[in-house]
Every structure is written in structure tokens, then in C-alpha cells.
Specification:
With 362 residues, this protein is mainly β. It has a domain at 267-362. The protein is 6% helix and 47% strand. The protein has helices spanning 4-22, 358-361, and strands at 23-29, 37-45, 51-58, 68-75, 86-89, 96-104, 110-119, 122-130, 141-142, 149-151, 158-159, 165-172, 174-175, 178-179, 184-190, 198-199, 215-221, 227-232, 237-243, 254-259, 266-269, 275-280, 296-301, 309-315, 320-330, 333-342, 351-357. The strands form seven sheets. Strands 10, 11, 12, 15 and 16 form a five-stranded antiparallel β-sheet that branches. The protein has a four-stranded antiparallel β-sheet with strand order 1-27-26-25. The two termini are 36 Å apart. The relative contact order is 0.13.
């Protein structure tokens, strides 16, 4: 029989190994000279169990307007290991294509949404479908007819239980040749699997004192069928709003208790009655640097987003820059993909995939 202290040491080692397996970084896509930035993407699980992840691969610089295409990696073991990257969608924009959403539709098809950026007066999402498990894609359809600068974050396309597809977008108007950083939120929906799109009745705005307006919005459907929306601001918190009519009309945006810098949050349903949020928590529960996108924290809501509990630390490097998170559920795991740069490589230039046991968040 082992001495008691050796038995305890063995249990400690096993416990630490289990913790690592419960929450692990499984892939870092590092920038290089020919590929200076890898950023924001989205997941989908194929019918054979393979997990596909598509993301923005820059090849002509690391700025938001630099040339970029859409590349992909895949995993055949629930996200534990990943393939080498391959180009999935070539750049057909005057600047780039970026900000991927992937979604398995109720019909079984896979939907793909991404931005085609032609300049500061024309950045719009296009929608594509695949009926052969992402082997090929139907020709792109513009979801917004009139050219303006619309921001639609990665992993933002949602399908409601009614079948309606919904795109939350931030409109940055070009006024007299000048880009307006103050964003208004608008919502585009389709009831025929993306063949046609309509804009919801009202656009959301906040007073000019919130200089950034409502940027980079997201939407999640709640258990009762109503919708919770949110957007980043420079007012120290994510602003929230809701809809009871499938996104046609929305409540007045108000500050939530999700305190954060001017950085996007990501929220998805975790079962029927819970929400999972990933965001930069500046509430003071964890050390933070004012204005920086750190720390990266998870939180749970059991009251439809009114409060957030069970906050847990994912990343805390004070030199880090963590944002644009995609959330995907694979059996008892949650896959998170996000920008995880720093001063050495650039804040948005490294892409990270983290694999976490569902139970870890709670």
C-alpha cells in the first residue's frame, strides 16, 4: 500500500490532469509573413460527426481592410485535434471577405454568411447554402440590397424556432464622405431560407453621449420564443434590448449588468433555461486593464440575461487581446474560437480554439 502522502499526491496529479482535460487550448493559428492575421470564425458539425471551422485568413496585411479570404480547419475527434488550414472561399471583394457565420438549418442544409467588403461605403453580408455538407456552396445572395457599411460579427446568424433567419447588423452611415463610428442597429430577416430578405421596422439607436452607438450586435432566442439582443458600447457596458415578435420590433436599448470595454460579447443558449456568455468582464470581479479586451470570462444566466452568475476566468494575460468569440456545442464539450493576440503578434492576429467541458462553466 502506498504511503498516505503519495496517495494524496497521486490524486492531486490526477485532479490537475482532469482539470486540464476539462479546459484546454487545442489550436493556435499563428500569424506569419505570408499570413499576417487569422481571426474570427464559426463552427458547424457535419452529419458524419466532423466539426468544421471557417475563419478569416488575411494574406495582404493585418488591417481590417487588408486582403483576406475564408479558410477552414476540421476536427474528427470532437475538437481535440485539428487539420491543417485549407482555403474554402476565395476573396471576391475589392478589399476582403470576412466575419463568418455557419448554421445548420432545420431543413438539414448548412447556411454560410460572411461580409464582402468593397470599401468604407460598401460592406454587406452575403448568404449561401450547401446541401452537400459544405463540400460546395450555392452562389452568394446579398442579404442587404443597398450599399452601406454594415458590420455583422462572426457567429451571429440565427434561425428561430419558426424557421425565420435573422441577421443583426450595425449600420455605420457614410455622411459627406466621412465614416460615422456611431452605429445604429438594424435587423434583416428571411422566411424562405435566405432567398429573400427584409429589414425589420425599426432601427435602434442611443443618445450621442454614447459615442460609439450600438456596435456589433447579437441575438439569441430564449426558451419562451422571445429574443434577447445586445450590442457593445463605449459606455462601460453591453446594452440590451428584446423582441416579442421575431425581431420585427425591439425594446429601447438599456445598459445591462454586463460591464465591459468597447468589445463584443457572445451569448448562446445552454440548454432550455440557461444562457452562456463569453465577454471581457470589467465588473472588478477579476483584475482588468481599462479599455483593453482582457480578461476573457464566461458567465451563466438563469433569468434570460437580466443577471450573470458563475463567472469563470478563461484568459487573463494583461498583455492579451481576447474577442470575437464563436461558441459551438459538441456533445458534452463547448468549443470556443476567438482572437487571442498580444503586443508581440498584434491584438487580432492570432486565432485560438479552446475546448471546455460543459460542466466546467457551471
Amino acid at each position: 500500500m502506498w504511503p498516505t502522502y503519495l496517495t494524496a499526491l497521486g490524486l492531486l496529479v490526477l485532479s490537475l490532469a482532469a482539470c486540464a482535460a476539462d479546459n484546454d487550448v487545442v489550436l493556435n493559428l499563428e500569424p506569419s509573413r505570408s499570413n499576417p492575421r487569422n481571426s474570427e470564425g464559426a463552427f458547424v458539425t457535419l452529419k458524419n460527426g466532423r466539426v468544421l471551422f471557417l475563419y478569416t485568413q488575411f494574406y495582404g496585411g493585418s488591417g481590417d481592410a487588408s486582403p483576406a479570404r475564408i479558410a477552414g480547419v476540421h476536427s474528427d475527434d470532437k475538437g481535440a485535434t485539428w487539420s491543417v488550414p485549407q482555403v474554402a472561399i476565395e476573396n471576391d471583394g475589392k478589399q476582403n471577405v470576412m466575419s463568418v457565420s455557419l448554421l445548420r438549418l432545420a431543413s438539414g442544409k448548412i447556411a454560410l454568411l460572411y461580409l464582402v467588403k468593397n470599401g468604407m461605403t460598401d460592406c454587406r453580408p452575403v448568404f449561401r447554402l450547401s446541401n452537400d455538407e459544405a463540400q460546395t456552396w450555392f452562389p452568394p445572395r446579398l442579404a442587404i440590397a443597398e450599399p452601406e457599411y454594415y458590420v455583422v460579427n462572426n457567429d451571429r446568424l440565427v434561425q428561430l424556432r419558426t424557421g425565420r433567419l435573422l441577421i443583426p447588423a450595425a449600420l455605420h452611415k457614410n455622411e459627406g464622405g466621412r465614416f460615422n463610428a456611431h452605429a445604429q442597429d438594424c435587423f434583416f430577416y428571411s422566411d424562405d431560407e435566405g432567398q429573400t430578405w427584409r429589414e425589420a421596422l425599426a432601427r435602434l439607436d442611443v443618445p450621442a453621449t454614447v459615442r460609439a452607438g450600438l456596435q456589433e450586435p447579437g441575438v439569441v432566442e430564449l426558451a419562451d420564443g422571445s429574443l434577447l439582443g445586445w450590442a457593445r458600447t463605449d459606455a462601460g457596458a453591453q446594452y440590451g434590448f428584446s423582441s416579442a415578435d421575431q425581431g420585427v420590433t425591439w425594446s429601447e436599448p438599456k445598459a445591462t449588468e454586463m460591464q465591459s470595454p468597447l468589445s463584443p460579447a457572445s451569448i448562446k443558449r445552454l440548454g432550455d433555461a440557461k444562457l452562456l456568455a463569453i465577454f471581457n468582464d470589467h465588473s472588478g470581479q477579476f483584475p482588468f486593464v481599462k479599455g483593453k479586451r482582457v480578461p476573457l470570462v464566461s458567465a451563466i444566466s438563469t433569468d434570460n440575461g437580466r443577471s450573470w452568475i458563475s463567472r469563470k476566468l478563461l484568459e487573463d494575460d494583461k498583455d492579451g487581446w481576447y474577442c470575437y468569440t464563436a461558441i459551438h456545442f459538441v456533445e458534452d464539450y463547448v468549443l470556443l474560437a476567438y482572437c487571442a493576440g498580444d503586443a508581440k503578434v498584434g491584438g487580432l492576429n492570432r486565432l485560438r480554439i479552446r475546448r471546455v467541458k460543459r460542466a466546467w462553466f457551471e
